[in-house]
Every structure is written in C-alpha cells, then in structure tokens.
UniProtKB/TrEMBL annotation:
It holds the Pfam family Aldedh. This is Aldehyde dehydrogenase family protein. It comes from the Archaea. The lineage of its organism: Archaea, Methanobacteriati, Methanobacteriota, Candidatus Methanoliparia, Candidatus Methanoliparales. Residues 19-208 form the Aldehyde dehydrogenase domain. PANTHER family: ALDEHYDE DEHYDROGENASE-RELATED. Gene3D superfamilies: Aldehyde Dehydrogenase, Chain A, domain 1. One of its GO terms (molecular function) is oxidoreductase activity.
C-alpha cells in the first residue's frame, strides 16, 4: 500500500501562466482508495474558469511566440520536461497510485513506457512539417501540408493518467498548438506536476492550461 504520511497542500489550477484558485474558490476532495481517507483538496473549476482557460490559450496562440517558434526551439522545452519526468518517475507514480488505487509499480511501468514520447515527437516533427507529395495518376499531383490547429482540448480518463497524457500532450505542443488540458477529476496530480515541469522548462505563458472538474463542466 502506498500512502502519504500527511495530507498534501491544496492544489491550484494553472491558468494563463499563473497558479490560481477557481473563480468561486470551491474545492473537492480526492480520497486515497488504499486508505479510504482524503489526502488532498483540489480546486473545483466551473464554466467561468473553463472559458478563462480557453481565452488564455487562444490569446497565446494568436499573439504569443509559441506557434512561431521553430521546431528546434519547441523541442528544447519538451526535452527538458522529459528529463524531469525521468527524475520524478517514482513521485509521479506514487501520486497516481494514491488517486486511483492502481499499484505504484504498474504506474512506474506506464510512465517508463510513455515518457520517451516527449522526445520521440520531437524527432518526428521536422519530417512531418515538410510538404508531402503524393503522386497520383498523371497529370495530377497532390501535396499534403500539416498546419497548426490552434487551441487543442485534451481530456484523459482516470485509469492510466500519465500514459494517456503523454500519448496526446507532446504531439499537440510540438506542432505549435496551445492546449487546454482536463484530466479526470479523480486523478489530476501527475498532470499538475507536468504543468509545473513545463513552467520550469520555460513554456511561454498561456500555452498550457490546466484545470479540473466534472464532465458536466467540461462539456461547456
């Protein structure tokens, strides 16, 4: 059984480059399935918070530096985060285990499996950004161009939180998109830690928005 000796401090949301409280200041409890006890309180975002995160991500895409940075510059930030994940594998695994009750060693396996994806997408991004000519029957030629989408909404389930996040998030960011990320309400802690890592790695303000709440709020 994995458990924290003490309750964690209240977790805030990451909106527009700042750690802040939800607009109404409400929180919800996360109960460790191994102990049946609350071990952390998280901010309970509402529709107003969701719109605030989307607006910040939109502004970061339209007016910020991230979409116009080179793939090499964006890769440097993702590489830094990948290295941080490698150093914090145990901590991330323990966080997720305390949230969903899955054995910590299983979380370690999923993190070790998917953390290299932060670097893998960087190695593929240069090739995927190039125009791809698809030859058709004469006299037709086709060229495929991949463009940034803008603001990308990512939602992940509770069962393998880091694995699901690492599957989606790096590809969205390396392409120059901005991201509003909503993990499952039951398992937000590893995503909170990833947001801190991106902040330390120098990700521009507004590129990565982190909130949490129920599916009802997310559908807004």
């Amino acid at each position: 059984m994995v458990k924290y000796k003490e309750r964690l401090e209240e977790q805030k949301v990451f909106i527009d480059g700042e750690w802040t409280t939800a607009s109404k200041g409400d929180t919800y409890s996360i109960i460790n399935p191994s102990t049946g006890k609350t071990f952390v309180e998280c901010q309970k975002c509402d529709v107003e918070d969701t719109k605030r995160a989307i607006d910040a991500a939109r502004d970061a895409f339209d007016n910020g530096p991230w979409p116009n940075m080179s793939i090499k510059e964006r890769s440097e930030i993702l590489y830094k985060v990948s290295d941080m994940v490698a150093k914090k594998t145990w901590d991330l695994s323990k966080m997720d285990a305390c949230c969903n009750g899955v054995p910590v060693l299983q979380h370690i396996v999923t993190i070790l499996d998917m953390s290299p994806n932060f670097k893998y997408v960087c190695t593929r991004a240069e090739d995927l950004a190039k125009p791809n000519r698809i030859y058709g029957e004469f006299p037709i030629d086709q060229i495929v161009l991949r463009e940034q989408d803008g603001v990308v909404a990512l939602i992940t389930p509770w069962n393998v939180p880091f694995w699901q996040m690492a599957l989606k998030l790096p590809a969205a960011l390396i392409s120059g998109n901005t991201v509003v990320f909503k993990p499952a309400s039951q398992t937000p802690l590893s995503a909170i830690e990833i947001a801190r890592m991106f902040e330390r790695a120098g990700l521009p303000k507004g590129v990565f928005e982190r909130g949490y709440r129920s599916g009802i709020c997310s559908r807004s």
